[in-house]
Design goal:
With 704 residues, the protein is α+β, with helices and mostly antiparallel strands. 47% of the residues lie in helices and 21% in strands. It is globular and about 90 Å long.
Length: 704
């Protein structure tokens, strides 16, 4: 159905922004729930949310549904691993929100009735998604008749998958609607008074220019302050919320990296040398390169100045068919063959009309419009006026589509080829990642001789034998060191590089180790001081181009870290507090009334300035966040010097040099701004509060 295709093309981004992804399932439940006693509900539990058990087959079905929607929206048939991770995460977030908020909505009596849904889908108050899907790209108006025609055809002609897709859109419209109702309730429960708005307006209008002295904490060595064990424990007990920690595991590991050897280098060079004669004889250079090279054929012509000195000397002093090389460039051996010469301009002036396929419903519709515009222009219509009317490139559309002069490699390849290879004033249609272009070259620069080279590249890569040799090294290490003590001793004795990583249960990768999810899962199945093993029982993980051997060093459970675990952090915090007190006393003793210069001299520092500090800000330029300093300014009179202020980054002495008042007196606008800011923050916090109020046991790491 053409309309459904247009919906897929135009709905993808909007649906994703408002509600995520989802639909069309591969049913796994019957298979996994039947038969084997190994697959009991507890073992298949992917999560428990607010006392509700979520089974793996049910969650996987939602993931598959979302994957199908993603495929339909993007036109892809397969998803890579990163996309699967994103789809699973979106499915998880949707599931948590659904379970957490369902009782909240019910308690508040929030529903979406059938009449409401009818009104949003085909009534007088169409939902933004429906408006976007059925907006006429030419007029910008929503075609309500098209909505009704589509719904009728859906009943008669649509496949089961297409019907399910549309039902999914309706379901998500309902979900978005009920979320909006809840959010509005939260917003309407909040109010900023006129007195609060007036106070904010006064703070915003009042600005201070100050002089200040700052003694940073780093100016006092740690040895200058002492801390007792009782002080540390008292601070820890008072600030335990600062030491909340997530569950984590810490591993130590070594890598046996697979790198190309001199033998691999020599074998690659020999392969290139052996193929040189054959390359010289073939006539279909593009096809030969695409079949045999690690880098595809590039259909570009280059001036002499664009090439390296050696290549330029070869290319412009030989005939087509001549071969240069092999030569080494980085990690690659290359052969270069002269494919063709042409006299081409080094710059072109052109204009274009860019058509967006999403707005047209498909690439076919965009190409059809481009073809129609081409016919109009060839029959005398104004290119400039049509560009102003139809082009999505608003910058050039204002200039009648004119792009001015541009050189090679400044435009995307399809556009460049049409502009440089086309005849002046002729019209050409091409496509790129930006859409469909109707192009007209209007002028061309001076033509110069240019060459097209066919480059055959062969990357130097480790051979099978090299992989086997490195694996043998890893195997030898594992066989000789099967417990944690021998593991660490061997690393020291053999002067190997030990790496450390702290990982969460749902982390997908360890930095620097490709595809390392299996090792993360292993860390959460092992005991402390265990050597990690993969699913096949081997202590060697093959991750990218490395063989890795690892051990679990420690584990941290979710909650408040123990005093001993965070003692170094507590000690730093207490020392900072004691430094603040000591520096404040030092400043107080050195203060000479209102004469900051004399005080600065006594403290062996200088006086700094900061201008335009608003009383509702929290930071000082070039210093950082210092709310205590800003707060003090509000209570100071002009030329009055503050008492020592203990701040985030040091101790301060501040003097207000002058103040200025702004003229913003729009109390209603300030009240609306504060209301909007508070409402937006409250919506997020309201959901987080509901989520934090329930128990969520996340077992996804056991399955993915």
């Amino acid at each position: 159905m053409a309309t459904l295709q247009r919906i897929r093309n135009r709905a993808g981004l909007l649906v994703a922004i408002i509600i995520g992804l989802a639909l069309v399932a591969f049913i796994l439940g019957d298979i996994l729930r039947s038969g084997s006693s190994l697959l009991r509900p507890q073992q298949l539990e992917v999560a428990e949310i607010d006392g509700e058990s979520v089974q793996y087959p049910d969650f996987q079905r939602q993931v598959e549904e979302m994957a199908e929607i993603y495929k339909m929206n993007t036109g892809t048939s397969q998803l890579d691993e990163n996309t699967w991770v994103q789809v699973r995460e979106q499915a998880w977030q949707n599931l948590v929100r659904e379970i957490v908020m369902s009782d909240v909505y019910e308690d508040l009596g929030l529903t979406v009735t059938a009449d409401e849904l009818f009104d949003m889908v085909q009534g007088n108050n169409l939902h933004p998604i429906i408006q976007q899907l059925f907006r006429n790209p030419q007029t910008g108006q929503v075609d309500k008749t098209a909505v009704l025609q589509f719904l009728k055809s859906l009943d008669l002609n649509a496949t089961a998958q297409q019907k399910a897709y549309w039902l999914y859109i309706e379901e998500q419209i309902k979900e978005e609607r009920i979320q909006t109702k809840y959010n509005n309730l939260v917003r309407q429960g909040l109010y900023v008074t006129k007195a609060e708005a007036q106070k904010s307006l006064e703070a915003k209008n009042q600005q201070a220019n100050i002089q200040y002295i700052r003694l940073p904490y780093i100016s006092m060595p740690d040895s200058a302050v002492s801390v007792s064990e009782d002080e540390l424990k008292a601070y820890y007990n008072k600030h335990q919320d600062n030491y909340k920690q997530a569950e984590s595991r810490t591993i130590e590991y070594i890598t046996f990296d697979v790198k190309a050897t001199e033998s691999d280098d020599a074998n690659t060079l020999k392969w290139v040398e052996d193929i040189k004669d054959e390359f010289a004889e073939v006539s279909e250079n593009e096809q030969y390169v695409n079949v045999n090279s690690d880098v595809p054929f590039e259909n570009i012509y280059q001036k002499k100045e664009a090439l390296s000195a050696d290549l330029a000397e070869f290319a412009f002093n030989n005939k087509a068919g001549a071969v240069y090389g092999p030569f080494k460039e980085g990690n690659t051996y290359k052969l270069v063959k002269i494919d063709d010469f042409k006299d081409l301009p080094d710059s072109v002036k052109a204009r274009h009309i860019l058509i967006n396929p999403e707005k047209m419903g498909s690439y076919e519709a965009a190409l059809a419009l481009a073809d129609s515009l081409k016919g109009l222009i060839e029959n005398g219509a104004s290119f400039a006026k049509l560009a102003e009317q139809y082009s999505e490139d608003t910058g050039s559309a204002r200039e009648g589509g004119d792009l001015g002069w541009f050189k090679r490699n400044q435009m995307v390849k399809p556009f460049e080829e049409a502009a440089f290879n086309g005849e002046v004033n002729k019209l050409y249609t091409t496509t790129s990642q930006f859409g469909v272009h109707l192009i007209q070259p209007t002028r061309k620069g001076k033509e110069v001789k240019q060459v097209r080279l066919a480059t055959l590249s062969r990357t130097i890569e480790p051979s099978t034998q090299t992989y086997q040799n490195v694996y043998a090294q890893a195997s030898k290490f594992v066989s000789e060191n099967q417990d944690y003590k021998s593991f660490t001793d061997a690393i020291t004795n053999e002067k190997l590089t030990k790496r450390i990583a702290t990982i969460g249960e749902n982390d997908r990768e360890i930095r620097g180790l490709a595809e390392s999810r299996p090792m993360i899962r292993s860390a959460y199945q092992a005991d402390v001081k265990d050597i990690l093993h993969n699913n096949e029982g081997s202590a060697i993980f093959e991750l990218g181009d490395s063989f890795v051997v690892a051990a679990l060093v420690s584990e941290t459970e979710e909650g408040i870290a123990s005093f001993e675990e965070v003692k170094p952090r507590v000690e730093l915090a207490v020392k900072k507090e004691n430094k603040g007190k000591a520096l404040a006393q030092k400043v107080k003793d050195a203060t000479s009334g209102s004469d900051l210069e004399a005080t600065a001299t006594a403290l062996n520092t200088d006086v700094k300035t900061a201008n335009g500090l608003s009383f509702n800000s929290t930071s000082i330029p070039a210093v950082g966040m210092e709310p205590a300093v800003i707060g003090t300014l509000a209570s100071l009179k002009q030329d009055e010097v503050s008492s020592p202020i203990i701040g985030h980054n040091g101790v301060y002495l501040v003097k207000v040099v002058s103040t200025t008042k702004g003229n913003d007196d729009d109390l209603m606008a300030e009240q609306m701004r504060l209301n909007q800011t508070m409402g937006s923050r409250a919506i997020y916090q309201a959901y987080e509060a509901q989520r934090n109020a329930v128990e969520i046991e996340d077992n996804r790491a056991k399955f993915y």
